[in-house]
Amino acid sequence: MVCNNIETRVCFALRGRGLACLPDFAIRDALAESRLCSVLDDYMEGTGNFYLLWPSGRQVSPRLRAFIDFMGVRMFPGSS
């Protein structure tokens, strides 16, 4: 199956429908609770980029700043 939706891939993996390549942030709890297990670690590189973009020349609103901070903590714990 080819799928570009993380939630769908997580759902299929949790139901035992096969292997899924998923970002750590999406399955952190499932791994900790042993509902999923990591395989092929030696064959996967932990590379990738995630960007938050907003129009240039604008001040970052408090709401956007809160979202950026939330995403940084939730998706990449320990990176700051």
Q: What is the compact description of this entry?
A:
InterPro entries: LysR-type_TF_proteobact-type (IPR058163), LysR_subst-bd (IPR005119). With 80 residues, the protein is mostly helical.
What does this structure look like?
One of its GO terms (molecular function) is sequence-specific DNA binding. It comes from Azotobacter beijerinckii. Residues 1-71 form the LysR substrate-binding domain. Belongs to the LysR transcriptional regulatory family. This is LysR substrate binding domain-containing protein. The protein has three helices and no strands. It is elongated, with a radius of gyration of 16 Å. The protein has one domain (6-41, 51-75). Helix content is 40%, strand content 0%. With 80 residues, the protein is mostly helical.
List the helices and strands and how they pair.
Layout: H1 6-14, H2 24-32, H3 62-75
Low-confidence stretches: none
Report the radius of gyration as a whole number of Å. Answer: 16 Å
Tell me the number of structural domains: 1
Largest sheet: none
Tell how many strands the DSSP assignment holds: 0
Strand content: under 5%
- Helices and strands, in N-to-C order? HHH
Which key terms come to mind for this protein?
single chain; mainly alpha; 3 helices; sequence-specific DNA binding; LysR_subst-bd; LysR substrate binding domain-containing protein; DNA-binding transcription factor activity; LysR-type_TF_proteobact-type
